[in-house]
């Protein structure tokens, strides 16, 4: 497979990003947006056409004078996303504008280990390829549910991914697909998805808090992911809520994840069902032998007081930790996402109530705290945003 | 007074920053550092000489061929720092390399209000001017002990600065001195001081935690101050430690500042002295009618167990909050500074012990937590770093 073309300079890079984010534009419009002379712009665009990244797309409607030629990203551009969760794989193909052309998802236990999970991911991609969606691949972005050395493209000591530690994910997939590949933490990937196509489109500094099996935070500073000095930034699941809280899998007590998150919520719901404090949850337990976070959401929606209380208590703990992060980081937006976020407005109301009461007025005066509206597409869009930012930058 | 000259482009800006941070350099060295051709470099340097920012400084030692001409920042460059604390004013004058040429400091209650405090600051600057240190002023940086709208150069609802809210500090000092002026929070200013001349010189992402009358945090991301969307970032004094802690001046309970910081420590030390749990502190109370954080430091240094316990407990609370911030931000360095930081290694040991136990291994594996070594000069150096970054950038 031939090498993916990359722009040669920052002007070309800026043009590609504009065509990705704004869609087809006339040469006249592009010239104004990037502040290049007509002749210089023509030179850069011609080069992008030669590289196969851009192509002419007819003439613009007249703005009075001569009609300006419209250009667009090549419709043959394809980016691939692998969003690997604790219990699922999502694989998607997008065009250059990051519009999802095909998306498959299936349950998959990440604990099967890197070789098995990545092989299954490639098989799923094969299905999309069989559908004719993938004439070629210009880049692939991968999200995994654990800490990643972004520079090396490998998971580093990921707690819930046995068999993945230091596995060369980027190298393995890059060899298979013959294109540039980047690997990041799944929460960072979701934050990029929100930045590209969600509530955060015009926000430079924001937090995405993912509450799923675990709890993590994507941090965006100045429109880019902040990863910290060793890639560990946003690991908020083990921030202390209380000294005398429940024992956590990490060995400390009172961590946020030990109070809330999918596993803790299921544990508490089971206790409530067994103790006979909730008819609905007890019914669920009798019917299926188990209760899940989704059962709690359904019970709360049906007005079950014990389920509502579980959600409120969890939201309160999340709010306590988030209030500290808002005081520290003064973000422009907080997005709550992930499976437990589907508990919805009862959760959101409690989180908001604590943050707005506990963080300083200067930080909360104009701070929206919202639920993600992207759902499962945040991860795949974010993964292609990550790799397209790379492919659309000079080598 | 004539306008301060500014560089005209990014090449000139980079040359000025290099000459500020690295000292005089030969044209040959500068050409290598900024990757400019000999002729292009000569053009930019000539222009900087014309602007009065740079001047020739003889010939370099031979490196084999023709001896290269050395250039340096104009020795007539002067930056001014006003570091206004809760109970003190520091005023300093530096040259273009931010070397302190003169520094005066005196107690001053910030609650006297903006007009009185700024007038006193200008009087102190007048003393330095009388000493001949200030032929002209190229820029002034100001730190104040409260939240600041950096863009507007005004304090915004600062809790401990009555009479300062929205006072046009930048405009007032700018009019008086006839030069560019920037105003920032005092903790941000200290962090810039550490970045310029302290432990953080080669660290891009770090935290400076100031524990004085109040507790605040300076956040450096990618070598620059991160201020948050409304300038409130780093306001960590009111992060919750416990639900059932002491009542705080902010109206919540269990805030970090309600547990520790100058005022809380003095309160607890007074209680210890009155209860007869410390002979040394009781003696101090009898002698002066009061006990201060400095008394606790002295008593701890003399081996007083009650004083050591106060410091340990405070360090433990700071550590609990800091552990959360380290999990979230994954910094490359944490510096502890401010008056209470003079409690020294007993404090540091306790902070470290909590952070290293409670934050994830990926974040603490290579994380130094240190006491500031700059002391009072961090603020004034940081203030001139702030304004020189501005003056040495294109208008």
How many strands, which pairing sense, and closed or not: the largest β-sheet of chain A?
A: 5 strands, mixed
What CATH architecture label of the largest domain in chain A applies?
A: 2-Layer Sandwich
Radius of gyration of chain A in whole Å, from Cα?
23 Å
Which chains share the greatest interface? A-B, 47 and 46 residues
How many helices of chain A? The count is 14
Beta strand % of chain A? 15-25%
Strand arrangement, major sheet of chain A = 6-5-4-7-10
Multimeric state = homodimer
CATH level-4 homologous superfamily of the largest domain in chain A: ATPase, nucleotide binding domain
Poorly predicted runs of 5 or more residues of chain A = none
- Cα(first) to Cα(last) distance of chain A is 18 Å
Rounded average pLDDT of chain A: 92
- Number of strand segments of chain A: 15
Name of the level-1 CATH class of the largest domain in chain A: Alpha Beta
Structural class of chain A: alpha/beta
SSE string of chain A, helices as H and strands as E: HEHHEEEEEHEEEHEHEEEHHHHHEHHEH
Give the % helix of chain A: 40-55%
- Count of discrete domains of chain A: 3
Shape of chain A: globular
CATH fold name of the largest domain in chain A, please? Answer: Nucleotidyltransferase, domain 5
């Amino acid at each position: 497979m031939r090498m993916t073309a990359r722009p040669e300079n920052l002007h070309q890079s800026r043009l590609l990003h504009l065509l990705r984010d704004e869609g087809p534009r006339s040469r006249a419009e592009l010239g104004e947006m990037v502040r290049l002379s007509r002749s210089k712009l023509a030179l850069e665009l011609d080069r992008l056409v030669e590289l196969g990244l851009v192509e002419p797309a007819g003439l613009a409607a007249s703005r009075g004078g001569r009609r300006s030629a419209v250009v667009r990203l090549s419709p043959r551009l394809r980016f691939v996303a692998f969003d690997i969760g604790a219990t699922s794989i999502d694989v998607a193909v997008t065009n250059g504008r990051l519009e999802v052309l095909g998306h498959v998802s299936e349950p998959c236990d990440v604990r099967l280990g890197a070789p098995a999970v990545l092989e299954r991911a490639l098989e799923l991609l094969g299905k999309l390829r069989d559908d004719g969606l993938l004439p070629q691949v210009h880049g692939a972005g991968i999200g995994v549910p654990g800490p990643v050395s972004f520079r090396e493209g490998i998971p580093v000591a990921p707690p819930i991914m046995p068999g993945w530690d230091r596995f060369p994910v980027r190298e393995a997939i890059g060899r298979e697909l013959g294109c540039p590949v980047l690997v990041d933490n799944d929460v960072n990937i979701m934050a990029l998805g929100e930045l590209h196509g969600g509530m955060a489109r015009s926000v430079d500094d924001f937090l995405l808090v993912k509450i799923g099996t675990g709890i993590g935070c994507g941090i965006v500073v100045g429109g880019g992911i902040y990863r910290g000095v060793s890639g560990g930034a946003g690991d908020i699941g083990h921030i202390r809520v209380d000294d005398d809280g429940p024992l956590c899998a990490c060995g400390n007590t009172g961590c946020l994840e030990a109070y809330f998150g999918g596993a803790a919520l299921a544990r508490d719901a089971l206790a409530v069902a067994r103790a006979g404090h909730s008819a609905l949850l007890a019914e669920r337990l009798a019917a299926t032998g188990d209760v899940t976070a989704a059962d709690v959401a359904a019970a709360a929606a049906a007005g079950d007081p014990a389920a509502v209380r579980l959600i409120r208590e969890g939201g309160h703990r999340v709010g306590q930790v988030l209030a500290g992060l808002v005081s520290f980081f003064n973000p422009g937006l907080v997005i709550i996402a992930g499976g437990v976020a589907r508990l919805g407005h009862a959760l959101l109301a409690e989180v908001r109530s604590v943050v707005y009461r506990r963080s300083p007025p200067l930080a909360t005066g104009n701070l929206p705290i919202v639920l993600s509206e992207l759902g499962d597409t945040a991860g795949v869009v974010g993964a292609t945003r990550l790799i397209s930012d790379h492919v659309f930058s000079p080598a």
